[in-house]
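Example (one chain per record):
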Amino acid sequence: MKRVAVLLYPGCIFFEIAAAVELLAKHCRVQYFTPDGGPHESSNGACIVAVGSYADLAGVIVDAVLVPGGNPDSIMELKLANECLRVAYAQGAVLAGICAGALVIAASGLLAGRRATHTYTAEFAPSQVVNFVAPLFHGLIYERANAVIDGRLITAQPWAVFEFAALIGEALGLMNDEERAKYLAYYQPNTSPLMNMLGS
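Predicted structure:
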């Protein structure tokens, strides 16, 4: 069974990875990691028990690491996630970051020279924020898209939760093109069976 790690941190938004976790949990062993290995109070009020710290994650082999968005300031200043992300990627893991999760991955240096998307542009963020984080995205090839996959690196906008989930599932070999299309058609409003029945 494939093993999937989820990096949780104070200020992260669980909703952004919820669809991916639901999809992957059917086929994988999904485990949560926090900066210090302690329990995490989720943005939805749930208390999530972590199996270990970021340092612990650097010592195990996983098939994928998911990084939610939110406010990652608590882990960015001390670069707490950099080592475990670099180790996981070097060992062949898929790295998937949504919204600010892309910033966390970029801070590790793994997005340099790679295609990716994020919300830290003039279209979505204040200029002072864009300028502040710009060095972390140095060398990144930005694509204005809902979600982007480049090799084993997946990034997505915060509203693209189902596309994010489907890309991860496909990257891990858990669904083929047809299954991915059916999954997206079911969950995306403009193509859902109900909307089609209603003629929308």
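Caption: Residues 191-200 have pLDDT under 50 and may be disordered.
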